């Protein structure tokens, strides 16, 4: 499940989707897929992405965890991590344990 539409500008530490397991993962959503000359037989089919889930401010406040924040601007409502840099995030989690 994605929280942003394709083509939106994102930044490091922004929450862009839901992972089906407990832990968080770092992904590069702006990096394109590497294209090769050889194709697999089933890879030519169009991939369909479900539309983005748009939260209201109340829903996003209910969704976030302890290490996350909600940014409210006049144009958008975004969820992000408290520590945007992944190394700072890991350092904070080690101190917490």
Summarize this structure briefly.
The protein has 97 residues and is of the alpha+beta class.
Please explain how this structure is put together:
The protein has 97 residues and is an alpha+beta fold. The chain has one domain. The chain has two helices and two strands, in the order H-E-E-H. Strands 1-2 form a two-stranded antiparallel sheet. The model has no long low-confidence stretch (mean pLDDT 85).
How do the helices and strands line up, and which of them pair or pack?
Layout (H helix, E strand, L loop, with lengths): L56 H7 L4 E5 L4 E5 L4 H11 L1
Antiparallel strand pairs: 1-2
Which descriptors apply to this entry?
alpha+beta, single chain, two-stranded antiparallel sheet, globular, 97 residues, 2 helices
In percent terms, what proportion of residues is strand?
5-15%
The mean pLDDT is 85
H/E element sequence: HEEH
Helix content: 10-25%
Strand order of the largest sheet: 1-2
Main sheet properties: 2 strands, antiparallel
How many domains is the backbone divided into? 1
Unreliable stretches covering 5 or more consecutive residues = none
Distance between the termini: 29 Å
The count of helical stretches stands at 2
Structural class: alpha+beta
